[in-house]
Amino acid sequence: MTTRRLALHALASAAAVSAAPSLAVAQSLGDYPSKPIRYIVPFAPGGLTDVMARMIALHVGTSLKQTVLVDNRAGASANLGADMAAKATPDGYTWLAVTLAHAVNQSLFSNLPYSLEKNLAPVAHLATSPLVLVVNESNPAKTLADFLSQARAKRLNAGSSGNGTPPHLGLELLANSAKIEVTHIPYKGGAPSLNDLLGSQLDFIVSNMPECVAFVKSGKLRALAVTSGKRHPLLPDVPTFTESGMPGVELENWTGLMMPFDTPKAIIEKISAEAIGAVRTKEVNERVAAIGFTPTGLGPAEFGEIIKKDVSRWREIVKIRNIQAA
């Protein structure tokens, strides 16, 4: 083969190699999505995760010109829906809404039928939100100090959205920091527990902010402290736990999107870009901020690191507090 022919052959080979990734992406995407997508939300309707998932479903579905159906599958401390997603066909037509609770569940349950890190793939970290200690408007407590006086005088009842969920973790951090005993009552979601607090069937809740902020603003609930590092713009008059002398009660819940582990990378990247684009639009950004979220919009790699860090952090806290599964 002549030098000229060798050079042309080398150029052709290089062009084929450079085109291969694009061809692979095109083949893996195909005509995706060509049918409705199922977006599993492992909590009851009306809660933090459900609200965010529906915003993403609407925006991304419109962008993709395909229906994204939110499927609420509450149960087993958010593991029922997560397990369903983990075992679904990895073709991009099953999405899963996840929260900090799923990272905690990895140590809370010893016999989970799925692994968050081995059976599910991170797609997009969407938003964070602090938690708020809230009581019914009829409760005479006006400050955290008032509340602690009550809690030390008698054992109080508190609800949460389920064992190991962020509201339960906030409750445990509060009890540990204040050295108080509390009766914990787990519910299948944040909305049901808030309903019982509004009906005075519970003494208090450490609630996800998006779930309770409207009731606080309307005066039906009273907020005593927030778990973020600084005051939240939606509740500027409510001090942080740190300001109130309890620095140990600091955490923020997060919500994100995952898919079955072997979902093609091209599909994951496509939906990650769509979801991140959604939370960065002015419309979605303003809507989620108005109910207490701080939009993030982080991709698969960054989201994966957050999951890894929280699985490790809460494994230690579950052990220290001896937090038990239901």
Provide a brief overview of the structure.
The protein is of the alpha/beta class and 326 residues long. It is built from eleven helices and ten strands.
Q: Helical element count?
A: 11
End-to-end C-alpha gap:
74 Å
How many strands appear in the DSSP assignment?
Answer: 10
- Estimated share of beta-strand residues: 15-25%
Rg (CA only): 23 Å
Low-pLDDT regions? 6-25
The proportion of residues forming helix, as a percent range, comes to: 40-55%
The helix-strand sequence is HEHEHEHEHEHEHEHEEHHEH
Query: Average pLDDT across residues?
Result: 89
Q: In one word, what is the shape? A: globular
Structural class: alpha/beta
3D structure, described in words:
The protein is an alpha/beta fold. It is built from 11 helices and 10 strands. Strands 1, 2, 3, 4, 5, 6, 7, 8, 9 and 10 form a 10-stranded mixed beta sheet that branches. Strand 1, helix 2 and strand 2 form a beta-alpha-beta unit. Helix 2 crosses helix 9 and helix 4 packs across helix 11. It is globular, with a radius of gyration of 23 Å. The chain starts with a helix and ends in a 5-residue tail after the last helix. About 6% of the residues have low confidence.
